[in-house]
Amino acid sequence: MASSFPSVSELEATARRVYGQVFGEEPPQVAVCAPGRVNLIGEHTDYNQGFVLPMALPLVTVVVGSQTSGPDVTVVTATEDADEPRRVDFSLPSDGAPLSPGLPRWANYVKGVIQHYKAPPLPAFRAVVASSVPLGGGLSSSASLEVAFYTFLQQLKPDDGDKVSKALSCQQAEHTHAGVPCGIMDQFVSVLGSEGHALLIDCRSLEATPVPLTDPGLVILITNSNVRHSLTGSEYPTRRRQCEEASSVLGKDSLRDATIRDLEEAKGRLADVVYRRALHVVEEIQRTVKAAEALQKGAYKEFGKLMVESHNSLRDLYEVSCRELDELVSAAMEVEGVFGSRMTGGGFGGCTVTLLQAHAIDKTILHIQERYGGTPTFYVTTPSAGARVLTMS
Ligand code: GLA
Question: Which of 44, 174, 188 to mutate to test the pocket of ligand 1 (most atoms within 8 A of CB)?
Fold first, then answer.
């Protein structure tokens, strides 16, 4: 059986209840939410200025809160897996003094977003966070927290409202306060996601094309391996550096500008591992464009084939998969009615995404459950809207 997850209004009710318990009777003035995401194809291409094709999820982070008169900020998380303490109190930065990251880790995303907010100074406030995006599961729980918090701050003190620069500010927060040199995909789709659509994002021009994804005969299944290997932290920046090395040897601004022929010609001047990383990126950018065209035409078999090619390339050339993700993909591909399956997100654990015919959903879940050594969690999802205000009073 697929997992059920709380609806946005149930999550908002939870956050409001906790707010009442912590801060007393007066209800919060503002409630907002921002989604997690699943990437259908285009992995490790965003920081190479390539294309990605994610969609926003019905799994979201909600923030409720109110402006206060005091000088301090209080933020409480109702998220079960967040590290302790679940309440932080701090003063807003004055005279541009930085808000340093520290412990608990969940609060660093909040501090980072305050630091990079585009319309300082901010008033003091108190807020409660609640989320249905599994933490550390590769579905962008951190981007959804950043974007939800930014959206909350916009209600307290409006900025210019530009959505792309909002995503860029949230990406900055992740760089400086979580120490992850991520690309723009997660924050972008959490801000600009559109119900019933995946987004083909050009990570160079930062333009997005919505691709309809509402065929009732089609299901998008996310399978959480429920493993996370500790490599993630160090391997991601290493991959980024290898890509930068490849583009500098090729004399290009980024691998977006490189062709397979460029790579073959430069092969002798590239370390083997750097060549393989670059080959993944150049081919994955091409696959993503083709996949968006296939989806547009309803050519699901073609789309599925590209998903599997993407997975194999991430496994063999980019080396960011792991045994558990490979097992989940192989198991899914054994079921009739499955078009394609691949790891999604940064890798080394987290989730796979599978595209299949709606009638095959039960047998697919059952088969994966039987074949996978661990205990997976399943989510049947639909493309959802980006960040939004839920209530304002
Ligand atoms: C993580 C990063 C994204 C992207 C993916 C890999 O999710 O946050 O920016 O690089 O990995 O595609």
Answer: 44
Rounded-to-5 percentages of helix, strand, coil across the chain: 45, 25, 30
DSSP notation for 189-216: HHHH--TTEEEEEETTTTEEEEEE---T
Ligand 1 pocket check for 33: Cβ under 6 Å: no
> What does the pLDDT look like over 178-212, one tens digit per residue?
999 999 999 999 999 999 999 999 999 999 999 99
Rounded to the nearest angstrom, the distance between the alpha carbon of 44 and the centre of ligand 1 is 6
Mutate to test the pocket of ligand 1, among 182, 187, 321 (most ligand atoms within 8 A of CB): 182
Q: Are 349 and 322 in contact (CB under 8 A)?
A: yes
Distance of CA 189 to the CA centre of its chain: 8
E strands, 279-367, are: 338-344, 349-357
Secondary structure class of 253 (helix, strand, coil): coil
Residue 287 near residue 310 (C-beta atoms within 8 A): yes
What are the strands of the beta sheet with 338-344, ordered from one edge? Answer: 338-344, 349-357, 218-228, 377-381
pLDDT tens digits along 2-44: 888 999 999 999 999 999 999 997 999 999 999 999 999 999 9
What residues have CB less than 8 Å from 175, skipping those under 6 apart?
Answer: 181, 182
Distance of CA 275 to CAs 244, 267, 284, Å?
A: 11, 7, 14
| Spatial separation of the C-alpha atoms in residues 393 and 374, rounded to whole Å | 46
Atom of ligand 1 nearest to the CA of 346: 11
Can you tell me whether residue 389 is helix, strand or coil?
strand
Three-point CA angle 32, 37, 38, nearest 5°: 165
Chain centroid, CA 172 distance in Å? 15
User: CA 17, 22, 25, 31 torsion: positive or negative?
Assistant: negative
Longest dimension (CA), the chain: 69
Which listed residue (186, 202, 262, 272) is catalytic? 186
Query: Taking the model in full, what pTM does it have?
Result: 0.97
- Contact between 189 and 199 under an 8 Å Cβ cutoff? The reply is yes
